[in-house]
Amino acid sequence: MTLHEDEIPVDEALVRSLLEDQRPEWAQLPLKPAGEGTDNTMFRLGEDLLVRLPRTAANAGSLRKEQEWLPRLADRLSTRIPEPVHAGTASAAYPLVWSVYRWIEGAEAGPGTVEDWALFGADLAAAVRELHGVGLMGATREAPLDWYRGGPLAPCDPWVTEALADCRDKAGDLLDVDALERMWRAGVELPESPAPHGWLHGDLKPTNLLVRDGRLHALIDFGGLSVGVPDAEHSTVWDLPETAREAYWDALDLDDDTWTRARAWAVAVGVSGVSYYWDSFPAFVAECRARLESILAAG
Q: Where are the transmembrane segments (predicted)?
């Protein structure tokens, strides 16, 4: 499945050749697809490893961030996070960096894996609080740790406005885009967050939250790892049931302005996903629509 014009094709044969060249001791292990995100393609390697390859050159920097910072964050967090075990280098066969991680057992958060959503919301809040409280270890909000979701809303207004217009054309009969735009504007018009900069995961949607025995077990996919203010970090709770969302809000004691800015971020990411992936990734569009419908239902 190709999602981007500048995407680099990846298949099992290519991954096998990379392993033969750089980690021959792993080259004969069983290899099978383990999912495709918007930024990376994954393969499970044997029982204990995961290979992750960026789809485009623009995504390669995310893996470098993970390779540098995840080992330093892991010792400071109670919730499990990915453990890089090999930093793959560019080659003639594949011109980008790539990574191998320890496999983390678990299933994504959803109705079939979580029974007590209030408890899950509190678990997620505790993991977020802990991550945000980790010292910066000299990191600052500079490239490559300056991802847009850790900054203010206003600079994003031009492309969000364009995405809202495109969403209105493509899904206006399915979504109340006017109401979504009002929610976006409500966030933009607020003062910028006074919160100090901290570590941010960047994309805590359910597919990046692994569950074991009904409880949050791991946070995965730190491609959006950045340093910044936490407003956008809270935006993905609209992907969860209302019970989890309320428990999360209560546990973190979020004020109304933070919640309004977080909701605006949720709108921004949702409408941009509908706009960009409308023709190429229907499953992801469905995720974005579900988020936007949840926002509209909550009001």
A: none
